[in-house]
Amino acid sequence: MEVETSSGPARVEVQEPAGQRRFLLVLTHGSGGTPDSADVLAVRDAGRALGAVTALVTQPYVVRGARAPGSADKQDAAWAQILAALAHAHPGLPVIQGGRSNGARVACRTAQAVGARGVIALAFPLHPPGHPERSRAGELAAAGTAVLVLNGDRDPFGVPEEKKLARVVVLPGETHALSRNPAVIGDAVTAWLRELLAA
Predict the structure, then answer these.
(1) What confidence tens digit (pLDDT) does each residue in 168-195 have?
(2) Which helix (H) or strand (E) holds 185?
(3) Which of 7, 12, 47, 130 has CB atoms 3.0–4.6 Å from 78's, for a disulfide?
(4) How many domains does the chain have?
């Protein structure tokens, strides 16, 4: 389906779970990427196995052919519009949202505004490579809800510290791509989702 936003149309691939619907899981890509990366698909599959209606979002800037996402304000506004359309189409389902890299930043920044029950942050880019002084830890804290962070121990963008609401899983041997062992990502997400949904 396509969702019209203030930044142009977004593409959304929605899949129903095999059994009963329990929650809505909305996932997106990193800067210049698409939502079919191994880590995002591992999260989608873990969610579907637990009863998620899954939505893989290609953000408007990628749909229109741009490589960079543009301003955070415009990106966040478009994301909120996408979430509103998906929530309207699936009323009553709790929302869990996430993404990789830049998409993880969007999911954290908008979590409170869209009423997300939790956030899955894949390869959260804590700082630009080589610039630890330019930390984005505040974006993680801004989520204001349960956050699962999965980062590789060889990620040049850094690894966030575990905080009150953020559980951080560091994957050995993984870089920013998080592509070596999707099954481990799926297992970590499954365990976290089970806890979150039981709470």
Answers:
(1) 999 999 999 999 999 999 999 999 999 9
(2) helix 182-198
(3) 7
(4) 1
